Amino acid sequence: MTRFCGVLFTVVGWAVVSLAQPYSLTVLPAEHDRATDPRTGAELVYLTTDPADDVNLYFHERSWLSDGSLVLFNSKRDAGGLMGYIASTGELVRIHSKNGGFTGATAANTGKRIWAMRGDEVVELRIDIDTSVSPSRVDIEERVLCALPKALGQTAISESADGKRLALGLTGLGDEGDPAIFIIDSETGVFRVLCRVGDEPGYGGHVQWSRTDPYVLSFAGQFPRLQIVDVRDGRPRSAYAQLNDELVTHENWWVNGLMLFTGGLHPEPTEDSHVKTIDPKTGEVRVIGAGAWWPNGEDEQIAKQNHWHAAGSPDGRWVASDNWHGDITLFEADTTRPRTLTLGHRVYGGGSHPHVGWDRAGKQVVFTSHKRGDANVCIATIPEEWQQ
Questions:
Q1: Statement: residue 36 has pLDDT above 80
Q2: For the chain, what is the domain count?
Q3: Quick check: 361 pLDDT over 50?
Q4: Which residues contact 224 (CB under 8 A, 6 or more apart)?
């Protein structure tokens, strides 16, 4: 039974706290390497070449600062954690504080800012980058919004379209019961439980705001998967009438109030998985990138023809998708014409998924590549002739 708490307000530690002085971050030498995809001609930049695993932020989080100066990623290297790539110099930055590291990060909609968690604290990080000196100097000023209830698990932070609210999901809240979705005022730090999610539809994380509607967010239910919540009433509703054996996964907000997701009617592991758009207001679904399925097809063969994550460019011109072989495909939004951008960035059956995401200008995508033997963050630039 689902329980709703749309009117329950819990206020804890709401005062905004700012550090009196910024502090400097550790700046590391560039280790990037440039290449060209031999099949497609796309320009590639491997931001990282360290043998430790480096992965880009998840595909529905913002990897680039709003001005494009820094690309965020997570690293398992010694003294890693949340890191950044300075786009103009290639230098790497370890984003860490004396009070600990940061998790669940996403770049803010505007300004040179990052939203992140440090333990139970919700923190705004304001970044200043000076590339006129060598090595570059990166200073950070942090603003602690609030401390949320202690929990066993957290989703990444998501920022509303108008920048006024943040949201994330918490699980394992002790005696508090079911998983809860919290929303936080981005200025005052006042937070409240938007809703608690019980057995129906269940809770699978992936809390994210609409990119266009400041009152609507989504989360992944266990079944049905696509769940929408309006913050004015706090009541989850299903956006898509999912069938019992239907694959519906990896939803992601796009332009004009649309969502992208992937899936099909043949169940895993030999699933067909199309890239689809849905208008949650009307329930209308369209296929923008078709997958494929055939009887007795081998898992590895079928996976080559299907899509797993899909993300749309902010300007509405492109949709990028990846598959379990690490192939990145672009679809023209107006024609659905597919274009292969780059191939072979994952060995089927192992390694991190590419989970491809976009820059702010709709010209580059970021993803995790295993082409060089370990997980590295890679950026592919869309050829200029395609943009024409």
A1: yes
A2: 1
A3: yes
A4: 201, 238, 240, 241, 242, 248
